[in-house]
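sorry to bug you again but im stuck and you know this stuff better than me. what follows is a protein written twice so to speak, once as letters and once as structure tokens for the fold. mainly i need to know what kind of three dimensional shape the backbone takes. anything you notice is useful, everything is just below:
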Amino acid sequence: AQIRYSIPEELTRGAFVGNIAKDLGTDVAKLAAANLQVLSDSDSQYFSVNVNTGVIMVSERIDREQLCGQNPRCFLHLKLAIENPVEFYRIEVEILDINDNPPAFPSDEVSLRIYELASLGARFPIQPAQDPDVGTNTLQTYHLSANENFNLNVKARTDGGKFPELVLERALDRELRAFHQLVLTAEDGGSPPKSSKTRITIQVLDANDNHPVFDRPSYGARLVENSPLGTLVVKLNATDVDEGPNGDIRYSLSSHNSAALRQIFAIDEQTGEIRVQGNLDFEEATVYEIEVEAKDMGSPTMEEHCSVVVEITDVNDNAPEVILTSFSSSLSEDAPPGTVVAVIHVKDKDSGDQGKVQCYVSPDLPFQLRKDYEHQYSLLTSTRLDREYIAYYNVTISASDLGRPPLSRHTILPIALADVNDNAPQFEQASYEVLVAENNAVGSVLVTVSAADPDSDQNSRLSYTILRAGGTDPGLDPTRYLSIHPTSGQVSAKFPFDYEQTTYLQFHVEVSDGGSPALRNRTLVHIFIVDQNDNAPQVHFPRAGEDSAIQLRISPFTTPPALITKVVAIDADSGLNAWLSYHLAEATDPGLFSVTLRSGEIWITRALQETDASAYELLVVVRDAGEPPLSTAVTLVVLVEEKGPEALQGSEARATDGGGLPTITLYLIVSLVLISTISLVGLVTLGVRCL
């Protein structure tokens, strides 16, 4: 639908223009509920709509001369958009001229030099006054003050312009009067009329008494726009019956011509040829009227004027223009098909078919164009969107006219998809297995779990927490031993681990994003504690107090080789860290005794002599196979006595029966072998799982 209003220019802000609800025949409440919007084709919002009353009001000062210049009719175009359903209404507001500008001369004073022998009827153009108003409010007439020699003639141009000319009605006589003072008044047709004045000073000169004469009063030409520079427009011909310098003619463009016209056309002062020196644009002007003057070289010079009318023919030299009336560069990825992304206005300055425009977008994009009405399109979504698949689109709007050949213009609309929290975080691994050496430093990072979320911004901001895994010992709370950084996923130890107390931990790590509602996921983490050699061997037999030696008694008749005792030690570590070896570090007589490397048995290796000492001190060192190895030492004092046994196990062994020590030794050896075997199998199994 289209509605037209007419208002005068320069209305105050808030002035009434029209009632949309009344003119559309609809209820005001319906317009307010339909989200009524006003869209303007111009850069400024000159009008606003009160959605509660349906009244269109003036919101900014409207200057018709600034908007439309000298065009006789001036229009502002609006579009009204309502939703549910979407409808568009065109509003055309005609801006009527008021008489708010008086005519104005370029100068307050004009000086003319006229030869006293100027012919009666000679015309002397005066620079015209300019009035930016139009119609009856623009310049209508001129008035000349009363005088004896000159009358006023007003020359009307084809474009409506009026140029005043002084016409000599009575011969001049310099000797009688050398200067004439006249007043020229320009008046418009407003009510009341406005006017301005300029003072004309005429100096009467002697000499050259014939002015040049053109062979035609006016000339005409037709050119194609964008004609190349130097194109001949027309060749003028003027003659002067005077001789010598008084008959030598020079051509020039009159001062009446605008500066813009002077940049487009140039005239050869000798030949009178007018040629193109600037750009001819049909869209800027379809007709040019050139005022040309021919002057002789007399003193004073005499001149004659003529007009050259140049018509411009249109060619398809303007590509269509694409104007975004409404555009949202951000679009939610869950927007349904048919969502309006942009409202586009297209126009072409050319005329006829060359000014008709068609628009289209690439069929490979999830967007389509809908033609709302002439020169307006809406860009809509055509399918479902997925930001994680494509997060950004450059939609190219192609506009092409119907000229031959057609011209086109491409406008790129960058559209970014706004994220919706539709993806749960995903861990890089379904589970994590970590080997951690016992006695680790407090706060050391054991493992870093990492998850990714293809969403963006807040929807992809992840936080991690530790949860107890199902089926684990209820008393073994992982949060007691471990902590996790909420954003980096680094799992750290709160305390050093002790392999001898805990060998394995299992727990869940849960990750959640920052969406609303938040989405979550879990992964399982296995932590295996690896034994370190942090326990030295402990001697269990024979027992002795701190800093005291163990005494053994043997008979001087002991027959070698004879077992005199056995050192039994236990290491709380496992594996190689608990594999013990026994060494005789010091002895009073190193050649008399030996220690079995693995069993710790102490043997006498030769028969005792009468010259041998009666007491021997042995230092036995028990060392594990860890890296670095740890050790402990025990001191034995062997006494040689007549009443001593041939093979003693120590002062504390005399109370036990002879079968006790071998049984204990057997149990210790079996236990050590079993522990070593189990540890070895566990390490091999763990290595296979890791591989």
In short: Helices lie at 20-24, 28-33, 64-68, 259-264, 478-481, 660-690.
